[in-house]
Amino acid sequence: MSHMSHCRACLAPDPYGFLPLGDHPPANMFVRAGELAEEQPKFSLDTEVCLQCGLIQVEDQIPADFFRHYLYVPSGASTMHGHFAGLAEAVAAEAGDGLVVDIGCNDGLFLSACNAIGLKTLGVDPAANIAELARERGVEVHVGYFGPDSAAELRRTRGPAQVIVTTNTFNHIGDLHAFMAGVKTLLADDGVFVVEVPRALDLIEKNEFDTVYQEHLSEFSVQSFASMGRICGFEIVDITRLPVHGGSMRVFLQPVGGPRTPKPIVAEMIAEEHAAGLFDAATYDAFAARIAGVRTKLLAMLADLKRQGLSVAGYGAPAKGNTLLNYFGIGPATLDFLVDRNPLKQGLYSPGMKIPVHSTAAIGERKPDVLLVLAWNFFDEIHDQQAEFLTGGGRFLVPLPEPVLVG
Q: Among 25, 18, 27, which residue's Cα sits nearest to residue 46?
């Protein structure tokens, strides 16, 4: 098992290794038909935790510029449209007539919601193909990676940002301290930095091991934000609990000495983490044992379905699903195909396992008996959308937190 020398948030030495996931191809490195015979590059997903601050993390091994072309867009999930409209309203309360910058703006879904209520916006994203989708929504995008140099250039050309937002991007960052230095450069002295990420406590309590993949280098605790913030000159002033992505949080940070008074929820959520044993090695050993149990149970259920002569497909081709498929060894001998609403993934094959990805129309056309729900974080939405599949006798196999058949 590979090992990190220090925590990327609080810099404490020797994180504790607890889940050796092995080597995986990048979770969004989908395969074209002509590339099926080629070997994909693989990188370690051996997972560690800092027992000082509770940051769950893997090594940063993806080469520079790897995400200039990207396949994930949030627009495919109806849930995210309403979610980002709510975030836009929360940001408006902080922004006034100041600039709102979204780092990792993706296809512009959030900033288009900000534009709709009259906010002044700018997106930053390294993926040129996705930036074009944002521009089609009327969102201005600076194409490039964010860091101290690009922050200085943006401040020189656009002035300070009153609000900097990053949603499910901060967990992609290898050098958090350089990123925070960029935020400090671009942010107004009385501004606020708003981060949305999945929460480490939810990952542990709900067996969400597949939230770890090479882009998701870190899964944050509140304590990890507080510890990193102290080093980087920031303090947490508020947190909103969020249901999306299996349990997330919206963290508001300001430069130390800013105008906001920290709210009681900050200390409350850190206390929750201590009470749950988030800083104890035994908690993570127990988690690893539960994931081994999930693997055994899910593979047995899939084998039983196949013995009955039933056809099984996968719903969703999300990055998290590829962690699960590769770690559990579930390939095309078990899943006939995957479906995904994202047209950028359709017609391709999943990384590692190389299962074909089709549009959701394939469910009606090929009529699988069971759908393994890889996009389990949107299961309520999927369940509602697939009423015809259920009416026809179809069943869902939801793998986490424990495998269960729903129908």
A: 18
Where are the chain's structural domains?
A: 74-279, 282-406
Q: What are phi and psi of 210, to 5 degrees?
A: -75, -5
Give pLDDT tens digits for 154-183: 999 999 999 999 999 999 999 999 999 999
CATH architecture of 282-406: 3-Layer(aba) Sandwich (3.40)
Q: What is the largest CA-CA distance in the chain?
A: 65
Of the ranges 127-136, 213-222, 322-331, 371-380, the best mean pLDDT one: 322-331
What is the rounded distance in angstroms from the CA atom of residue 202 to the CA atom of residue 20?
20
The answer to whether the pTM exceeds 0.70 is yes
Same fold, 74-279 and 282-406: yes
What is the Cα–Cα distance from 320 to 372, expressed in whole angstroms?
Answer: 13
pLDDT of 71-118, one tens digit each? 545 555 566 778 889 899 999 999 999 999 999 998 889 999 999 999
Residue with tokens 């534009």: 115
**Domain 74-279: which CATH class?**
alpha beta
Phi and psi, residue 368, nearest 5° = -65, 155
**How many whole angstroms separate alpha carbon 129 and alpha carbon 70?**
7
